[in-house]
Amino acid sequence: MAAAYGAVSAESGLVPLTLARRAPKADDVEIAIEFCGLCHSDVHATRGEWGAQNYPLVPGHEIVGTVNRVGSAVEDFAPGDRVGVGCMVDSCRECDSCLEGLEQYCENGMTGTYGGKDSRNGGAITQGGYSSSVVVDSRYVVRVPANLDPAAVAPLLCAGVTTFSPLRHFDVEEGDVVGVVGLGGLGHMAVKLAKAMGAAVKVFTTSEAKVPAALELGADEVILSRDEDAMAAANRSIDLIIDTVAAPHDLNPYFRTLRVDGALFQLGLPAEAMPPVNPRSLMRRRLAYSGSMIGGIAETQEMLDFCAEHNLMADIEMVSADQLNEAYRRMVAGDVKYRFVLDTSTLQAPAEEADA
Amino acid sequence: MAAAYGAVSAESGLVPLTLARRAPKADDVEIAIEFCGLCHSDVHATRGEWGAQNYPLVPGHEIVGTVNRVGSAVEDFAPGDRVGVGCMVDSCRECDSCLEGLEQYCENGMTGTYGGKDSRNGGAITQGGYSSSVVVDSRYVVRVPANLDPAAVAPLLCAGVTTFSPLRHFDVEEGDVVGVVGLGGLGHMAVKLAKAMGAAVKVFTTSEAKVPAALELGADEVILSRDEDAMAAANRSIDLIIDTVAAPHDLNPYFRTLRVDGALFQLGLPAEAMPPVNPRSLMRRRLAYSGSMIGGIAETQEMLDFCAEHNLMADIEMVSADQLNEAYRRMVAGDVKYRFVLDTSTLQAPAEEADA
Known about the structure:
2 copies of one chain form a homodimer. Chain A is α/β, with parallel strands linked by helices. Helix content of chain A is 25%, strand content 26%. Chain A has 12 helices and 19 strands. The N and C termini of chain A lie close together (10 Å).
């Protein structure tokens, strides 16, 4: 049994729960969770804003902890290892995407870390990382480098790899100019990662108040996106834009800041329709309007190793279990720099465990 | 002086005109025009549908003819050579795009073959290929391979290179699957070119009547885009879509037919806004929604050489000057397979020339 916090209905907010985790099978790793990042997706999912959910639902897909025990066939991990789990805990392992290490695009649908149907485990609904432990197939577990603060690593498992993946896909390197739209959990990681890859970084924000913070994160320039002159001055100056804004916004002014063969990767998913992209914006410079989701498992490990090499972590604010609902309110209000992380030692021990 | 057909106002239709062409300067080639393709852009431009125009306006940017005389510095062309001119006759020659052979994306704006401001020639407005002759800087002239029918080559200078360029940019080769949306001047060339590159081709059309024609052009499969079952059956089966439709249409169903890392290149430019692209369509397979315009000069030559190697030409219907207005009516109605070409021998000789 595991202590947890989750929603019991779309309106319940987060309440203390007890979860039954499966005993590790041959390929499984049982992880004692230390930290779990709070992602905007968690808010949408627990509130049923992205479609009907099975309740109770324990969110959390930015998990860091230590290995408690491993199944008989596990060779890559041993008790005591510090490990991480991101947004998926399984996929079909057979389709072209899975075989290419793009499990996030599994043709048969990857299994989300929470709220997913765990077909290899009797179709149980997966439960996430706001919990004291989790059992995950070792193929979907990554190693956390020893030189990084484990709490500040947690957000890398979603926010980190989600921004790392398109930067790598576009082969960002020294001499490139990367634009980052929005400065939240994803945006602040995009700035750090792009800088570490050697790019110059321009941050777009609607808020003058965010200018000092953007510069502090390493941005070379901050552009107020509602200032038409500033946007015009950025004309044809950027190779790749990482757009992390999850509210509908007009992309056409951003396309004008891209060079020929530039690309804009949208990573946030607004609930309402985006304003239409003018095809002329794309045609006149052969631009690509793209999007992507997290990264594959091998790429997640590559991202962690890259962060270890460059000593990169998320900027976090730690919360205890009893602060989770307040943290959700602050996330929705944009009042966090830049990611909340739950300290799972503050979860109540389940009664059953206390009895054992 | 040159005989020509052009518009004298947005409402005039095409009427006989006489043009004064400049005497060839050192780098110029004077071309006796034999054939000129009729492009949809010509209709929009002469009618002022893409913004205010200077009149008179002689359209035509799919020009094939023979060299009449050359300027003193021209070494690549000699009288009697068969040559072509496409959509541009100049560009700045200094910006990164020009230096990379992407003159169509010239940062200072390329000079269109008609209706463009010819800054190196006193700012005169360029006049196009519905004409008995034209004088063009040799840098913007390409060589027409001897084994191709020159009339059927004319449409390659716009419709050919516009589809060739994204196919090459995406490195289409044997084993790839290319989708083609729309079967007009551009679409029919996209089918031929993609097949010649070794790809399998699926044509999307709204019209059951076009199925036999698509198969005759070489399509491996024809999908009726309004048939939801047929669209569902094409799920995740295509690497690259060349979309040639210039009317607003919903792209989201097409994205579902693309494989991971697939791309859709939009080449037609609707006058009204397109329905919004759902970013989720892009994110769930890391797709790119792109667009491009024609091709560079070197790429245009490469396209012609490719067509010579594969014996590829446009399917054309020849028209005489007095049939131009009727041909425009039929183009707007979609009643052409697949490109009209003007036989410039049917232009009236200018009175001045007759006097000489």
